[in-house]
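A.,

Following up on our hallway conversation. Structure tokens first:
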């Protein structure tokens, strides 16, 4: 498997940390945490129904 560099923006990295903390405080399991190299977005799947996208701007939203 080829290793790729993950280069999130500072805003995006901090937003991911806040979202993951918010999810864990609500006792939600984080099933998937993925950085999309093509779009630069982070995808977070929590539980069975919560889907969150964190773009490079750091303004996350539910999918």
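Then the amino acids I'd put at each of the 63 positions:
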């Amino acid at each position: 498997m080829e290793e790729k560099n993950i280069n999130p923006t500072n805003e995006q990295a901090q937003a991911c940390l806040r979202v993951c903390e918010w999810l864990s405080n609500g006792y939600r399991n984080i099933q998937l945490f993925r950085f999309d190299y093509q779009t630069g977005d982070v995808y977070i799947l929590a539980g069975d129904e919560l889907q969150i996208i964190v773009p490079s701007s750091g303004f996350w939203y539910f999918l």
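The chain has a mean pLDDT of 93. Curious whether your intuition agrees with the design.

B.
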